Amino acid sequence: MMGTLCLCLDLALLLQMKFLRAKLGRPPKWLLMWVSVTSMRHSSIKMKRRSARPSERRWRMLWSTFLRPEFVQPALEKSLTKLGLDYVDLFIIHWPVAMKSGDEILPKDASGKIIFDTVDLRDTWEALEKCKDAGLTKSIGVSNFNHKQLEMILNKPGLKYKPVCNQVECHPYLNQSKLLEFCKSKDIVLVAYSALGSHRDPNWVEKDSPYLLEDPILNAVAKKHKRSPGQIALRYQVQRGVVVLAKSFNEKRIKENFQIFEFELTPEDMKAIDGLNRNFRYAKLLSAVDHPYYPFSEEY
Ligand SMILES: NC(=O)c1ccc[n+]([C@@H]2O[C@H](COP(=O)([O-])OP(=O)(O)OC[C@H]3O[C@@H](n4cnc5c(N)ncnc54)[C@H](OP(=O)(O)O)[C@@H]3O)[C@@H](O)[C@H]2O)c1
Ligand SMILES: *[C@@H]1O[C@H](CO)[C@@H](O)[C@H](O)[C@H]1NC(C)=O
């Protein structure tokens, strides 16, 4: 099941790549790379299902306890050993807020509070550039960066490689229009996570958060096209030039999530969905709100 699911996910990404190529007239180079990373990642999870706890899977992205530059390459090398690979295609910084380095995935003090660290992200970025130069990854990118943090990397003296992507929460309730515009102007691909309104895991998402897929407008558009609200939410992103992630453990919904290339939303539909924005973020990660690099205090 896991194998099928992941293959499906990858296929969906491939389809999106075809679509984006047709739409934008240029192939998003890194996307193929992303597709192969996910497939490798998932085949490794399948092989090592017993040890593939979510915390370990994060090492395929650079987890926050490894942001100090001297830990970056060893972290990637450890991942590669686990994957049985010589290189990955895309390596991204998961989140700009560093946590205390060490063996703990979520280092906590005696009172249960996460112990943070302050690391200059430009130093982390240089370490990612070195991983690329060492042939350990084909492309490098970031996740959960605001535009100032992206700018800080882009303006770094001696910058060798730009981030190819910024993976952020993005859906009709948080349309990220300003960040998207910024990313497009810098040729950075915006990748949307929680595009269906998130997994609603109570560890990360407040219980009283609105249910995106129950939104009446989204449902009206869905009804009109004889599609599901989930398909409309995914299609919306593809039509605005966003690469969209969709996660499901259900075979029917996985299939459904592919079928967003057979129909098109009209400009009126797009406008109606644009009207849903309320700058609502599901994953606020408030435990880090006082950290100087907490990304979500900025408007975008
Ligand atoms: N970079 C980051 O910090 C970060 C943070 C969060 C997530 N992500 C990435 O983004 C991916 C997805 O994000 P996410 O897990 O937050 O949430 P999501 O993709 O918005 O939503 C997943 C939820 O939607 C359900 N679902 C899937 N397809 C559906 C459909 N067609 N209709 C109705 N419900 C549907 C799934 O349930 P069923 O399984 O029951 O279908 C699951 O509970 C993750 O796998 C992760 O790789 C990255
Ligand atoms: C995004 O949200 C803003 C603010 O609510 C809204 O004006 C805009 O139309 C929405 N969509 C896009 C594509 O900007």
UniProtKB/TrEMBL annotation:
Residues 62-277 form the NADP-dependent oxidoreductase domain. Gene3D superfamilies: NADP-dependent oxidoreductase domain. The keyword Secreted does not apply. Keywords: NADP, Oxidoreductase, Signal. PROSITE patterns: ALDOKETO_REDUCTASE_2, ALDOKETO_REDUCTASE_3. Pfam families: Aldo_ket_red. Residues 1-22 form the signal peptide. Belongs to the aldo/keto reductase family. This is Aldo-keto reductase family 1 member C15-like isoform X2. The gene is LOC103541472.
